[in-house]
Amino acid sequence: MIKINLAPLEELENKLWYIPDLFIILAISLSSWFGVQYYLGQIKEDIVKITEERQNYEKSYQRLKPDLERFSLLNREVDQLKKKLNSLRQITVSKISRYRPIILLEHLQNLKPDGLWFNFLKDDSDEQIIRLVGGAFDNLLIAEFMSALTRTKFLEVDATDLRTQVYFPRVYLERVATTGSKSSQKKGNYSAESAAFAKIQDQQIRQSAAGSYWKSHEKDFPEMAKFPGFEMNIRYAERSANDQNLER
Predict the structure, then answer these.
(1) Does the chain have fewer CB atoms within 10 Å around its N or its C terminus?
(2) Which fold has domain 95-247?
(3) What distance in Å separates the CA atoms of residue 230 and residue 217, rounded to the nearest whole number?
(4) Beta-carbon neighbour count of residue 106 at 10 Å?
(5) 0.85 exceeded by the pTM?
């Protein structure tokens, strides 16, 4: 039987041929091992730092825990006090707010000149605006009524009289017309401030208020068609004696 050796010639001549390759493999292995150990060491150091920080935070929390508990207790007490204050506000509501509708009606009745009447009145308490529809024997009476309303802001405030603490700072005449003549109906000119009245000038009000005046008087009271009617928006406000002193 013939045996043939197929090994390379340099392996046959040098029997330690594998030593350089082995050295390279060992060098790569050692480098990798040291690299991994260095990386693991960095991770361990980070873990130690994070652990120390966590312990420091826990110690700080334990020191602050009594203060935090007191703070939470104070928040609960503040909430309870707010509830009590709200309850007190509901019980001790100002007399002006309580009697304001009556005061407004009294003002309108007292300031209304003879020969002028009301057909519709709506109080928008959110916007503090009164929507008023009525009529008069003469246009001068309407002008007199508007002047009387605006003069209330110049009256002296009496701390003992709630009526003096409610006044009318703005009066807007939306329309004045003679019901028997549609051509004489005129729209008022609006400023930017009067845009607030848009909320109460809806179709329902026009049908129930203005419509009832402009139409019913022609049908039911034809003799009143020659007298002028008006639509008016009146803003009201409240003030105290201290407020007036500050203004002075």
Answers:
(1) N
(2) Gyrase A; domain 2 (3.30.1360)
(3) 13
(4) 13
(5) no
Q: Which residues pair with 237 in a beta bridge?
A: 167
Task: Print burial letters for 4-40: b (CB count within 10 Å at least 16), e (below 16).
Answer: eeeeeeeeeeeeeeeeeeeeeeeeeeeeeeeeeeeee
pLDDT per position as a tens digit, 103-143 = 999 999 999 999 999 988 999 888 889 999 888 998 999 99
CA distance 149 to 141: 12
Question: Is 232:163 a contact under the CB 8 Å cutoff?
Answer: no
